[in-house]
Amino acid sequence: MKFNGFIVSLFGVILLAYLLPQGNEILPLKTITDIGIGFIFFFYGLKLAPQEIKQGLLNYKVHLIVQLTTFIVFPLLALAYLPLFEQGKDSELWTAIFFLATLPSTVSSSIVMVALAKGNLPAAIFNASLSGLIGIFATPIWLSIILGKSADFQFLDVLLKLGWQILAPLIVGLILQRIFGNWARKHSKQLALFDKGIILIIVYSSFSNSFTSNLFDAIDLSGFLLLIVGVLVLFFVVYYLTALASNLLKLTLEDKITAQFCGTKKSLVHGSVMVNVIFGNSANTGLLLLPIMLFHSSQLILIAYFAEKYRKRKPEMAKI
């Protein structure tokens, strides 16, 4: 297991937000993150390789497992958590878990882990990219249906904001891909550092608001432990459900790896963007980000472990 500086940095900026919560007053963080978000998805559009998307296009069984798991199974499992919270849908902790469950799959780490485990890489690239596009619509739809008025947002307004902040830069990136695509893929590591930097700023800004308003004072130890257990249960249930579905559909081991690794992921990038667009600059955005951060950390560690196991498999191995 390699040291992951990004995970450490995430919790480091939370500590910084606790010690120095005045960052939003000192710097125009909202403007910085709004511009940064646009560039994240512009670069994402530049890096999408059309030939790799085409190679993964026809593998419909993997697509069904990944997309249904991401946008149907995850939210339904989160709904099953409702009886555990006394306030039901009014519980901010449950809302945070449900928000996590509605998010799309992550892109970069899914592809990296599938490559490490020797899975079907073109299918992983296609599904991770498709998931991000579907999530622009699926996440606000789920929140609008389940949370209703308590979500305190207008669906069409949110859709327009997401389209402006995510879809428009993405389309511009795709249009300019022929000119700058090779440059973007060549410098993908440097661009990934930019992505992470913007996420860290969003996390700091969100938690600063939460600490300033004393939001976390309302969460006791039992609530925090429930959050951690809930996040881990979500991961393992989905991980083994995708394995079961893959076996029932008689997928090859390479396709099964892709289904498991892409179907269990949730995107911290999309979560960080959408929490600001959907819920605004409210006090509870830090709390809403907490399950995503816990899940992100867990998925990297656990999937890295499973990827290493798959990588060391014997050539004749058919199933795990």
UniProtKB/TrEMBL annotation:
InterPro entries: Na+/solute_symporter_sf, Put_Na-Bile_cotransptr
Gene3D superfamilies per the UniProt record, alphabetical: 1.20.1530.20
One Gene Ontology cellular component: plasma membrane
Keywords: Membrane, Transmembrane, Transmembrane helix
Pfam family, one: SBF_like
Transmembrane segments: 31-50, 62-82, 94-117, 124-147, 162-181, 224-246, 289-307
Superkingdom to which the source organism belongs: Bacteria
PANTHER family xref list: SODIUM_BILE ACID COTRANSPORTER 7 (PTHR18640:SF5), SOLUTE CARRIER FAMILY 10 MEMBER 7 (PTHR18640)
Protein name per the record: Bile acid:sodium symporter
Source organism per UniProt: Zunongwangia profunda
